[in-house]
Amino acid sequence: AMIFSTVFVVIDYxxxxxxYVANTPKKVKNILNNIRIYLTDTLFVVxxxxxxxxxxxxxxxxxxxxxFRIEGxxxxxxIIAMLxxxxxxxxxxxxxxWTVIAAVVGEYGMALGIGILYIVITMVRNYLExxxxxxxxxxxxxxxxxxxxxxxxxxGLAGLFGxxxxxxxxxxxxxxxxxxPAE
Length: 183
What we know:
mainly alpha, elongated
C-alpha cells in the first residue's frame, strides 16, 4: 500500500502541490515555510556538531591506540568513532568487551588503558554533546541532554537527532511568536 501511494503522489505531485498552494491559508504557509527553513538549517548544524564529536573521539582513540602500538590503529579508531554515534552500540559496544577480553587473556596493561580510554571518551562526550549540540541549535544544555536521552531511548538513532531538532523548532517558533507585536 505504501509503494502504491508513493507512486500516486509522485505522479500527481504537481496537482497536489497546486491544491496545497490554493487551499492553505497564508499564515499556515508562512509557518510551514519557516519550519522547513529552520529544519534544514538545524539539521545541518546538528550533523556538523556530531561530526565534531566523532572527530574528537577518533583523535582520542587514535592517540591511545598508537601509544599501545595497536595494529591498524587509525582504521580501528575510525570505525569505533563512527559506531560512537549509534546510541545502543557506541564506543562501549567495542571498548568494554575489548577491555574484558584483554583482562581475561592476561593483558592487564591493555585492559586498564582501554578501560580508562572508554571512561575518558564517555566523560568528554557526556560533557560536550549537550553543550555543543545545544549551543548550535539554540537550546539550553540541560534541555538538549533530556531531548537526546529521551529521543534515543524512544526512537534510537532517529530520536537522537530528531528530538533535539524538534524541540529546537518548537522553541524557535515560540520565540518568533513572542517577538511579534500583539495584534
